[in-house]
Amino acid sequence: MSTFLQSRISIYHPGRILKLAILTFLLFAVQVASAAGQATLHIAAAADLAPVLPPILRDFEQKTGIHTLATFQASATLTSQIQNGAPFDIFLSADLSYPQTLINAHLTRESSPVLYARGTLVLWCLKASPLAPPSLASLTSPRLQRLAIANPERAPYGRAAIAVLDQLKLHDAIKSKLVIAINISQTAEFAESGNADAGFLSLTSALTPQLQGNGSYYIVPRNLYSPIEQGAVILTSSQQLEAAQQLLDFLLSPPIQKRLEAAGLSSVLPAPARDNKQ
Description:
Blueprint: H1 3-11, H2 14-38, E1 41-46, H3 53-64, E2 68-73, H4 75-83, E3 90-92, H5 97-104, E4 114-119, E5 121-126, E6 147-150, H6 156-167, H7 171-174, E7 178-181, H8 184-193, E8 198-202, H9 203-206, H10 209-214, E9 215-219, E10 228-234, H11 241-252, H12 254-262, H13 271-275
Parallel strand pairs: 1-2, 1-3, 6-7, 6-8
Antiparallel strand pairs: 3-10, 4-10, 5-8, 5-9
Helix pairs in contact: 4-5
């Protein structure tokens, strides 16, 4: 057999064909994984959404095939990160002012924030606390030595807590007792761990199984603080503009608005629309 013919047979040896097929498959798998990574929708989400958003995002992913990755922090922190170039696609804030800041900086598609929910402030304490069940009277109790609130300079629920104390003319008397958390999630941690005797939390936090099991809450009258209107914006730097819009539409759909209500947020849809099963 000639050397030329032997080389031709070697080229088409079944073992080499198998190796070539495996290599081709691996290259294809890497390309698919890369494409999947590029399709990930990055969400900057206010901390009060941490107990609420994950199951909704799982349903969104199952329905659309769009993979999501959410980062939960104080709205002010997320705003600063976006201003500094953090690669988020959509921002779900706990108020309207932080999205408006990004709008003013020409970093969003929208000319005004899209209202997707309203928050509710509660006063929470452990069931074993001498303050239980909590009420506004708890704020003047001598047993209240430490009161947890989110940083009012960076967290909308913290601002709401300060507004309540101002309305009740208790701020000066209580300010030395305040334990300042970086966001509403840490506020809940302070109250539940006993590092604070009580805390002003979001209703979304108070309704989690853990906090419901360990404590009790009092819904603060809404006339004591400005509405906690939560707004969203899609960022112009996003490479997933269509996916971001799909998520926003999903959040505003009647079934999801009803789920947000059940989890402690108020719907932004009129009652007939919320009742529409669609």
